[in-house]
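Re: that chain you flagged

S.,

Sorry for the slow reply, it's been a week of failed gels. I finally had a moment to sit down with the sequence you sent. For the record, here it is as I used it:
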Amino acid sequence: MVNQVDKKVERVTVDEEVRQLYERYQAAESDTERHEIALEMAILDGRRHANIYAALKNE
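Prediction finished late last night. Pasting the structure tokens below so you have them in one place:
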């Protein structure tokens, strides 16, 4: 049960992080700023995929 709660909290945290990055991207005033935010998004996406693969490996 705790594991499911932890996963839900993690999802909410990641979803919030994605939302904040998207808002920053939309508000960016330069291509350089958008590029930096896109790199942050890629790092977050990589982290999300690593969590998914780890969960699948543990099943």
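What I noticed first: The first helix runs from residue 2 to 27.

Talk soon,
D.
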